[in-house]
DNA sequence: CAAAAATTTGCAACCGGTTGCAAAATGTGC
DNA sequence: GCACATTTTGCAACCGGTTGCAAATTTTTG
């Protein structure tokens, strides 16, 4: 069925090497030869088999894209960015869905079988050790949206979650809220832990203010709604820092159902700044996470590792910023 | 770096074929041999190179997943389902993002270079001819969410969009709306055209009722909002069938901004029944599209084509159903 | 227990490419 | 035009596996 190198060589009456060389840039081929080969290739509709060549070159241009966040809308943006950027660089994403049951060991094995050149683990909820399994298997790996660390074991690209928790607290304090709260995502996610830590650290500077905390079961609308409904049964705080935007939307839904007004009765600040936060019906005040930079930088890093496999693990941390919308009361004009 | 067949063969002191056979099911190997080989493989940490073997077997177990819908949240659900299901069948999704600029020819070539076993084109907005390019290149292809046709050129799995348009119209009529309208997605999408056709066909049966139509620029929140804001400047209809759920949410946002009530002042029915439609803050009445069946059936079909490449093109159409929520007035109790 | 049948094993060629090396072709200087 | 340097080309081995075939081994049968 498929046209091979050999077919082209025969038709052009040249050696197989000659054909191979015309399709390899940087190889030594005369103009005359190149034209002859290209003509034959054209006529036969030949295009080289990337996998066969990977066998000798050791490069497949396949990048494993591993994630477990197939229910958080922000990840559609993440996948969009990753796939586009990889394509631009001539790389192909091999997608791995790690949702619930799937065994990590398994994906490592599988991605090795397909000899991916590198792996990007895109998740804020996977344990830090997960990406390490790839590194241990000798596969270049970058953990995107992973935990910032001053001595990372693998390359990490993302935000400083501690800092973002601090930023959220500062934002609430600056707006004059007296009783604030942290409503986190799943408690075992490092992102939740770090945001909580930062939040507490900042609040510790304001002993006169009250703060409390609780956790939702997942980074999801339903979980956020459920948790906020629970909170509203007792005396709620004046403002909440929710674990992420989708949790915030769930919380908002609960608040409005109870007939309360945002931001008058309760304030909300989220994290991520996903497209939906911008929708006029939500208009969520949130902390912007620079997805584009994170994605681009992750890819840059994994590409760099191809040439330099033992590159010293590095943490690339991008700053966040507060995006003012309509779910927090304005700054006192003072 | 990597452990190869040869290494295992040497360590186990057997031929390379023997090793190959222990890792190929259905091959003739004695228990004794298998144990010897497996022991050596274990010790060396060997796992076979899937791409090398694809060279001789002609199967890569790679499936191209091609889409251009990286901004519609429903597609996160679609990707989730596709990746899980493919993984369950031992197949790997190679994701291709066709957003805007990317040239279709290009992706065909690329997917051929990676010798994918088959391709799933998941999109309701791509032209019918797109998937054909794969078929013409001899690659098994299924167009998911494609246009239903009684004489399809490639395998199509999806819903009957004409019928769903009809169903929407019926639903509106049954609820006693006198002036109804179709607010479609992009006019060049086949799904839009077909839904419109069905809508009109049904309305033609009710010459006493008024109906009108218009189109949004994209299947997106912003486009739906913009179009509805425009419609609200003149006298709007009593109820709208919006092209899909995300358009509906945009429309709802516009309606509420204008201080109108849903469903009292204006009714909305969407299409897709994405997770977000279920969110209490939206509670969108919509037509459920059976994503799970469509995905599973698409994969089933593409797998079937592996063994039977010239299988006669088939259209698999799944029925939709209306999901009652809160954006249409109730049925008259009559 | 020997002969026939069935099973297991290894050899060697092949899948579709790449690449080091030496031979052939082309270009340069005098 | 000749000797030498440079570029282009083909040969053949290799990448990591699979597989048809025949030889070797084991099992069955009389």
Explain this structure to me?
2 copies of one chain form a homodimer. With 334 residues, the first copy, chain A, is α/β, with parallel strands linked by helices. Chain A has 3 domains: 44 residues, 434 Repressor (Amino-terminal Domain) (Orthogonal Bundle); 130 residues, Response regulator (Rossmann fold, 3-Layer(aba) Sandwich), CATH 3.40.50; 129 residues, Rossmann fold (3-Layer(aba) Sandwich), CATH 3.40.50. Chain A has 13 helices and 12 strands. In chain A, the strands form 2 sheets. Chain A has a 6-stranded parallel β-sheet, sandwiched between helices. A 6-stranded mixed β-sheet of chain A has the order 7-6-8-9-10-12, with helices on both faces. In chain A, strand 3, helix 7 and strand 4 form a beta-alpha-beta unit. Chain A is elongated. The model of chain A has no long low-confidence stretch (mean pLDDT 95). Chains A and B meet through helix 4, helix 5, strand 2, helix 6 and helix 11 of A and helix 4, helix 5, strand 2, helix 6 and helix 11 of B. Chain A binds a DNA duplex (30 and 30 nucleotides) through helix 2 and helix 4.
Please describe the topology of this protein.
2 copies of one chain form a homodimer.
Chain A: H1 5-12, H2 16-22, H3 31-44, H4 50-57, E1 62-67, H5 74-88, E2 92-97, H6 104-113, E3 118-122, H7 128-136, E4 141-144, E5 155-159, H8 161-174, E6 179-184, H9 190-203, E7 210-215, H10 221-233, E8 239-242, H11 245-257, E9 267-272, H12 275-278, E10 286-288, H13 291-307, E11 315-318, E12 321-323
Parallel strand pairs in A: 1-2, 1-3, 3-4, 4-5, 5-11, 6-7, 6-8, 8-9, 9-10
Antiparallel strand pairs in A: 10-12
Helix pairs in contact in A: 1-2, 1-3, 5-13, 8-9, 10-11
Chain A binds a DNA duplex (30 and 30 nucleotides) through helix 2 and helix 4.
